[in-house]
Each structure stands twice: as structure tokens, then as C-alpha cells.
Amino acid sequence: MSKSMLLSSALLIALAAPSAHAAGAGPITIGVPVGLSGANSVVAPSVVQAAELAVDEINAHGGVLGRMLALDVADDASGAAGAQKAFDSLVYGKKVDVLISMETSAARNAALPIVSKGKVPYIYTSFYEGHSCNRNLFVDAWVPEQQVPPIVDDFIKDKGAKTFFLIGSDYAFGRGMLSFAKSYIEKSGGKVVGEEYLPMDGSDWTSVISKLKTAHPDAVITSTAGGAPNVTLTKQMRAAGVALPYANLAVDEGTAKSMGADATGIFLSASYVTGIDTAANKAFLAAMAKKFGADEKTPNDLSVPEYEAVYLYKAAVEKAGSTDSAKVLEALPTVSFDGPRGTIRMDKQHHAPLTMYLGQVQGDGSVKVASTFKDVDPGAQCPNLK
Amino acid sequence: MLILLDVVTTAAILFIVSAGLLAIFGVLKIINFAHGAWLTVGAYCAVVAARLGLNPWAALPLAFAVGAALGTVAEWLIIRPLYRRPLDAILATWGLGIVIGQLITLAFGRDVQITPNLLGGTVALFGLDYSLYRLFAVLAAVLIGGSCAALLEGTRLGLKARAVIMNEALARALGIDTARVRLATFAIGAGLSALAGVLLTPLTSVDPNMGVAWLIGAFMLVMVAGGSFAALAVACLVFGAVQVLVSTFVSPILGSISVAVLAAVVLRISPRGFARA
């Protein structure tokens, strides 16, 4: 059963050039437990590519404190059981210096006790439902408080929507996102006329879609697991002729593109879209294209935070003067990095203020930015952490 | 009305998904746990057809042919020695399913594949806008059920298959080549499963694990149906109705386990399931 995981763990991507080893110190190892199989398998390769690019760039400029960076990628199968194996092997077997990864909430929750016990800094680079607090955990991606308001505000003000229908996968992220969306909609004067969930491996949305159609809402907001459930729900909604304003909280640009015609018109809210018009983003896109060529996976809202997190870790290690966990954890909230998404600093209770973009999927699969929301605050995520 | 349509179309989809498994269980008395893998193979035939630029409908005969061909090879290499060891056959077919899944992963990667829709849009029916494809699924289910019944009742192969079902030793004594009947049945069953895989593509994402989600439901239905297509149709309607009603009035999360729970209850009360229907 753990065959695929072991295989991928064995896939140690040592990017350190042997001649560049300084002072006899080995490389600083970054563990990347990620869902190469299962629900996250669509986006995981782009995350690995982003990490590879960051490591390459840093190593080409002399590494960190004279040491090279190396990646150790492990498959967590997008779930709790796989994550426990992947984190165990990275933290205790490979003894990595830091964990930087995008994962499902189930995988993150299962892994946190291992991270606490192993006292390894863990930068979580996936957007998630919020309020995950741990001394070792830092997050450089968005939480509902940052992602949902642009969509709801736009639907209520510009589209005149009053009633909303919410559909999600039955897991921490799906429920967390929609419960925030519900309270925000009600606070903004809207009304939620239905809220339905299906298990993550469920593939038959028949009755959920029938309820959606009978409820006659003005708009629909979905928050499924990425990958298969997202594609399945969108296909079945389109087949059933649902043509309401439709915001998908779990879709990224790449998935939208590959879904083809079914994705046209979907609204998404993200901290990264490829169309961001800054020098840092253009340089990043050019570097990605140069390094991976035809194999490049479109950079997205899950892969760019991974790229930036590697740089944030570098800055923290340099400030701390060592890879010692306690010192790095102290330095992490104080450092910042100017990346493709702008200046990122994880100084708000281990979370980061982010600029958010509301986009709509066009007929050719590209995402057009409809409006920009500057430096949206993550709110009080972890008031009990120092 | 909407619920009635949901029930009928859900039952049709369940029937399409289970037909191939039933064909093999009915005649060969072995449970083909590689069924999920045949579904996946069929769905990837749609992916291949799309990449070759073929009409999406061309994926249907292609999938049946590929499924039947792979079924022939699998019967010959793996299943044939295991007819007298049905428990080992479960293990062997489960393993075969894993192997096929991994081969698909090697060839196509773990990503979700996108296939063109066979039929899009909705039609106005009883004052409702209903998905055209789901209605087409009812037609497809009737066609599959009808042709299986015709094959079984109206052809020489069907006659021989029925003889094998009733009394294999006697059939062999009468000069029927039972090995060939078994081979043909397995090939047709695998072909039907692959065909079902293509028919699922407009409803689900196509990925290497897609078949597993459908396998358990199909297995439960076939256990309850015994060996008959008529019983399978009844089982699909009853279970489909329960699934839709529970999903609609209680919770879709409970709805998605209702088939498994109901199958266990039915088999507890009546070990032969709906086979007498």
C-alpha cells in the first residue's frame, strides 16, 4: 500500500552541485510532503516545480549561509494516513530542516502532531479554512477572511444577488470555507437558501443539483476538494443546465483551463493569477518557462506561495544565522520577501496579509481580473499564539 | 417529478455501471474485483479517442473492443485456473485491478483528464429543464439490458451460457465447450464494463482511481441481484430510489452510503436477494 509513497520519497532531488559545498556542511534539506496521488494530484506537480525553481535560483546565488538547499519530495496521497507516513519519514527518517508544502487540510491536521514532536518549522503554502494554530506552523496563503469577501461583495453589489446556494465536499476545508461564507453573506444582507455536502470521494451530485435547481437562488458558491470532486460537480452542474453566477472557491487557473468549456464564466478569488502585472511576476514566469519548457505546469495560487515560502525560509535562516528550529521560528514572522504576489510577510499571528484578485474564467480558459483588493488582512487567526 | 427523474436516471447509471460485473458473476460465479479497473480503462479510451481527434461517440465501440480484448487476455492468463477457487479469484482480480490502475498512471499520469461531452445541455420535460445526458443514460441502460437479454435468450452462445449456469458438468458432457463459453462471457463482461466507463465520462472526472468509487456500489447491486439482469434492473431502481430519497430528504452524505447499507439489510433478510424476481 505504501509503495507509491516510498517510491516518491526515494525521489530525493539533490540539486546541490558537489563542487559548491562550502565548509564541508551538507545541504539544508527542505521536506515537501505533497499529494502527488489522490485529490491533490492535479496541482501537486506545479507545486514541486515552484519549489525546484526557488531552490535552483537560491543555489545559483550561493545558497543559504554558504550551504546548498536540497528538496526531499514525499507523496502524502492527499490524505491523513498518507501524510502521517510522509511526515514520519521526512521528520524522523530524513531529518529535514524545514517542511514547506501545500496539502489538504486533513493531511495538515494529521501531520501537525508529528511536526510539534519533531520541532521542525513548517510553512504551509496552501489556502485553507483558517484557524490552524501551532508554534511550528506558518502560513503564507489565504484564509476565508481574505478570499470570500471579494466574491460575496461582487455578487451582492454588481450582480444584485440576494440568495445564495452553497455546495461543498464534506471535509474541513469545504465546511470551513462555506461556514465563513454563510456568516459573511448574512452579515452583508444576503440569504443562504441551501447548503449541501457530499463526501470527498462522492461522485454523484444528482440530488444536490436538483435541490439547487428547486431552490432558485441568485448565485451559487462551491467549495469542494480540488481535482476530481471539483471537475465532477462542475460537469454535472453544467449538464443540468445551471447557468447562475457561479463562484468556485477551490478552482485554480490551471484546472479551469483544463476543464474547457464547462469552466467558462466561473468566478474565482485568488491571491495569485498569472496575469499580475509586476516585474517580479514577469521575471518569475520567464524563469519557470526557461527551466521547465514544455513540461511547465501553469503557476497558480498553490505553487507561487510554495516558491515564496522557500525564499521566506531562506531569509529567516539568514536572519537567525543558523537552521536551528527555535531561532528560525523566531525569525520567520519578521522577514519578508518580494515575490510574484507582492511583499509577503507572515506577521499576523503566523498568517500573512495578501492582495486578492477576483477573476472570471474566459472562453479560452484564461482568467480575467475583474477587480483587485489590496493587502487584505487575515483577521484574528491565532490570537493565542504569541 | 424532478425526484422521479432523478430516481430513474440514477437507477439507469447504476445499471450501466453494474451490467458488466453481473454478466461475469452470473455465468462464471466469480466476483470480478477488477471491474473498477475496466471502467477506468473504458474512460481512458475516451481520452485516447479525444487525443486522436475522433468523434466522442467513437469511444464507445473502441472501449468495448479494448475492454473485450483485455478481458480475453486476463481470462486466459489469470482467471482460467481460478474458477474452482472463487476466493482466490477475488484476490487475483483485486490485484489485477491495482496493476491496471498503476499501468494507467504510468501511461497517462495521475492527473484528472478532461474528455469532450457526448451530449450537452438540457431538455424541457414535464415543465422542467433536465439534463439531456442523464435521459440518454436511461436509453443506454435499456439498450444494454435489452441486448444482454437478447444475447442470453436468443443466441446459441446465450443458450450455452445458460446451460453452463444450470449445470456445467452436464453441459460439458453434452459437448459444449465450456471453456470457450467462459472466455466469451468474460470478454463480453469486460467489454461492457469498459463501455460503461465511457458512458460515465460526462458525469465524472477521469483519473486512475475513478473506477474504485463505483466498484463497491456495483458489487453490492450484483450481490443482491444474484445472476439475473431483470433482478439487477429491479435492484437498481429500488436502491437508486433510496439513494435519491435519502439524499434529498435527509442528507447527501447518508445517501451515498445508502446502497451499501440497504444491500446488507436485504441480504440479511433474504440471502438470495432479488434473484427470485
From TrEMBL, chain B:
The keyword Protein biosynthesis does not apply. GO terms for cellular component: plasma membrane. The chain crosses the membrane at residues 12-30, 37-54, 60-79, 91-110, 130-152, 181-200, 212-242, 249-269. GO terms for biological process: amino acid transport. InterPro entries: ABC_transp_permease, BCAA_transport_permease. It is found in: Cell membrane. Belongs to the binding-protein-dependent transport system permease family. LivHM subfamily. This is Branched-chain amino acid ABC transporter permease. It comes from Lichenibacterium ramalinae.
